[in-house]
Amino acid sequence: MKREDYLKWDEYFMGIALLSAGRSKDPNTSVGACIVSQDNRILSVGYNGMPRGCSDDEYPWERVGGNLETKYFYVCHAELNAILNYTGSDIKGAKVYTTLFPCNECTKALIQSGVSEVIYLSDKYATTDSTIAAKRMFASAGVRCRSYEHAGKTFTLEL
To answer: In this structure, are residues 24 and 47 in contact, taking their beta carbons and an 8 Å threshold?
Structure first.
C-alpha cells in the first residue's frame, strides 16, 4: 500500500519556493519563487538578491534612506530572477509559486513571459499601490491568482 502522507503538488512547489527564499541575504524580506510547467515540472527557481557580479557586501540592504543607499535600486526580485534563470525557450502557460505576492514590476515580467497562474504564500503588501496595480494587471491579462492553502504540515530538513 502506498504512503498517504506524501506532499501534494502545491505543497511540494511552495516548499521549493520557501527553500529558495533561504538563499536570500536580505535581512528583512526573503522571497523565493518556483516556476512550474503545465505538466508539473520545475522550470526555474529564484530568490531576491543582488544581480550576478554585484557583491552582497558592497551594495546596501537598508530599507530607509536615499535611493542609492537602500536596496530597492539594486535587488533583483525572486520572480524576475526565476524568469531570468530559465534556460528554456517558452514558459507560456506555466504557474509560479511565490512566497510573497509579486510587485508591479515582476507582474509585468510574469505576464510578458506567459505565466498563467500565480500561487502566493503571503500578501502582506496588499494595500500598497504596487500590489494593487499588480492585481489589476493580472486580472486584465487573465492571469489567475490564488492564495496558497496551508496544509498544516510541518516538514523538516536537516542540512
So the answer is: yes
Locate cell 512566497: which residue?
Answer: 99
Per-residue pLDDT at 157: 77
Task: Give the pairing of strands 117-122 and 95-100.
Answer: parallel
Phi, psi of 136 (to 5 degrees): -65, -45
Q: How far apart are CA 125 and CA 101, in angstroms?
A: 8
- Phi, psi for 133 (deg, rounded to 5): -65, -40
Tell me which H or E stretch contains 81: helix 78-85
| 79 among known catalytic residues | yes
Residue tagged active-site, from 4, 58, 79, 105: 79
CA dist., res. 107 & res. 104, Å (int) = 5
With 0.70 as the threshold, say if the pTM is over it: yes
Per the CB < 8 A criterion, the answer to whether 43 and 88 are in contact is yes
Cα–Cα distances in angstroms (integers) from residue 29 to residues 10, 114, 158, in the given order: 22, 26, 23
The ranges of the chain with pLDDT < 50 are none
pLDDT at 19: 96
